[in-house]
Amino acid sequence: MVRSDPAGYTYGQPQVPASPVALHELAQLMESVQWSPADDLALRRAGAILAPRTDEIVDVWYRFIEDSPHLVSTFVGKDGTPDPEYIRAVRRRFARWIDDLCNRPYDETWLAYQEEIARRHHLSGKNTTDGIESMSGHIPLRHVIALITPITLTLRPFLQSGSTGADDLQQMLDAWLKAVTLTVALWARPYNETLW
């Protein structure tokens, strides 16, 4: 599927600085989540199923975000109410993240963009991409971590629709969970650079 890049999507562009995370540190994280060559294959299979349906998936995710006052509060404008333009912009990039997570190589370019995403959640960069004046200066790390669960569990019906059976489905879900956990570990770095 060919689609244009959403506003604010800067993957691989020169303005995205290199990540302070070295490739050997990424390899250690991948070992910590027990990444294997089978996960590479399973995640690519998942990507083939998920990439054409990213808008539907993000609809599911944003229903529970918008129904949770403590989560939707990170999307408020200067008046304290959710900013619909901001939500739309982030949703488009979130959809693209699904495709990237499944289909991009985990190399220096990918690492740099994970650091950029982390910055956009953190005090150092939230709201700058979309030029939003917001009462929310960051996304609390506890919520970034906690969202691993719904972002994984809600994919089961999507993956099931394209899986070849129970084993294939479980392999794709396992690979997805490992990939999401890996990225959230990377996104946590700016929250405490010393202890990371």
Main sheet overview:
none
The coarse silhouette is: globular
Poorly predicted sequence stretches spanning 5 or more consecutive residues: none
* Topology, number of strands: 0
Mean pLDDT, as a whole number?
A: 95
Total count of helical runs of at least 4 residues: 10
Compressed to H and E, one letter per element, the order equals: HHHHHHHHHH
Helix content range of the residues, please?
A: 55-70%
Q: Gyration radius, to the nearest Å?
A: 16 Å
Strand content: under 5%
The separation of the N and C termini measures: 37 Å
Strand-pairing-aware structural class: mainly alpha
Describe the structure.
With 196 residues, the chain is mainly α. It has helices spanning 23-32, 37-50, 54-66, 69-72, 84-103, 108-121, 141-146, 148-153, 156-160, 166-187. It is globular, with a radius of gyration of 16 Å. The relative contact order is 0.18.
